[in-house]
Write a structure and sequence with these properties.
The structure holds 2 protein chains of 2 kinds.
Chain A lengths: L4 E3 L2 E5 L4 E6 L7 E6 L6 E6 L5 E4 L2 E5 L5 E6 L8 E8 L7 E3 L3 E6 L1
Parallel strand pairs in A: 2-11
Antiparallel strand pairs in A: 1-3, 3-8, 4-5, 4-9, 6-7, 7-8, 9-10, 9-11
Chain B lengths: L4 E3 L2 E4 L5 E6 L6 E7 L6 E7 L2 E5 L7 E4 L6 E5 L8 E8 L10 E2 L3 E5 L1
Parallel strand pairs in B: 2-11
Antiparallel strand pairs in B: 1-3, 3-8, 4-5, 4-9, 5-6, 7-8, 9-10, 9-11
Classes of the chains: A mainly beta, B mainly beta.
Amino acid sequence: TQLLEQSPQFLSIQEGENLTVYCNSSSVFSSLQWYRQEPGEGPVLLVTVVTGGEVKKLKRLTFQFGDARKDSSLHITAAQPGDTGLYLCAAYSGAGSYQLTFGKGTKLSVIP
Amino acid sequence: DTGVSQDPRHKITKRGQNVTFRCDPISEHNRLYWYRQTLGQGPEFLTYFQNEAQLEKSRLLSDRFSAERPKGSFSTLEIQRTEQGDSAMYLCASASGTGKGADTQYFGPGTRLTVL
């Protein structure tokens, strides 16, 4: 099973600041997904990245897949209180497996 | 499309009791997953169904856990002889398609289990 390491584990910032969170592994992935989870709810898919070096934008969120497809980052510009939540990266565990493996997540708090 | 629903949302039980959770996936979704999430962790894969067939189970899954999807629609997850370590959020997700690669899983709100 591939291990996905996310950093930082916790992040507390003021509204309007920028931030970047990271997802790293020693394994190569065919694709990688980012989810956001709010307290008491299930995770919601934000984006899937497939190609090495790929950059995807979702409003103020920018997702990048590393060239070697071993790592990914999520950058948020001008964070808002509504961005508060647990950000999880996830990847399928290998060829032929249906198992989605998650990192431990980055818990983001944006203070008004 | 009403999304994935789970019942109950919360369950408190005493150690040694059996519990059963239900998941209703999005209509027409042929794939269904169960995950467990504890505090400070991401969801951990438990098992996967394609239609009514259980195709994959986590090696970490104790034999006290059993899941069914008898008609390829709703699914149940049963935990027998619960232990305090079973306390967690149990999440269900559904998806359509072949199940390989970059498919989108839609998660339910989860059932929070507390074992006293």
